[in-house]
Design goal:
By secondary structure, the protein is an alpha/beta fold. The protein has one domain: Rossmann fold (3-Layer(aba) Sandwich). 36% of the residues lie in helices and 17% in strands. The strands form 2 sheets. The protein has a 7-stranded parallel beta sheet with strand order 3-2-1-4-5-6-9, sandwiched between helices. Strand 1, helix 1 and strand 2 form a beta-alpha-beta unit. The longest helix has 22 residues. It starts with a strand and ends with a helix. The mean pLDDT is 93. InterPro entries: Epimerase_deHydtase (IPR001509), NAD(P)-bd_dom_sf (IPR036291). This is Epimerase.
Length: 222
Amino acid sequence: MKVILTGSTGMVGKGVLLECIDNETVEKILLINRNPIDISHPKIKEILHQDFTNFNNIKAEFKDYDACFHCMGVSSAGISEERYYKLTFTISEALANTIYNVNPNILFTYVSGAGTDSSEQGNSMWARVKGKTENFILNKGFKDAYAFRPGAILPERGVKSKTKLYNFFYVITKPIFPLLKRMKSVTTTSRIGRAMINLDNNPHPLKHLEGADINKIAKIIG
């Protein structure tokens, strides 16, 4: 299995990357980053790319891959709807279009969020934009596609969030992580990674996957 991965410098993306490195079925990982990651491994090929609204100059790199794990994302806190739209929908649209034009026979998974608005008509700005992004990806025509909608995500394996407030929360709640992990709605960075990998050989009838769905798929062996 050969994987294209975005967002590997973030909490979720880095967690997914670590699972891809450890999984024997993943033989190659193409990282698309703005800034270099602090991990070196024989499986990894990293491309530093600045303009995430246009991937035409690296589109040839997307050939012969089996899956794209699109883990890029930003918080909507403190930014305008215009900027959030660009960083969420516009970038995802550009990536999906470029990959589809080169390699439509691919599994595409997008990290969205719990509470996303598929109708695109609700009052919540971020939920509308995420819903539009999900709808675009799921209807693009890929071999298979999923929208991951985790709620609470616990970091594992030393992974940290770029958001200081989230890191503070994780530090003070770490003693009760074992209890939180037992909750069906709570998932982890490792489970998200394992679920994405497992979907390649184990398609799921649901295309919007909540925390409990992610946890269930992460347990699949073989």
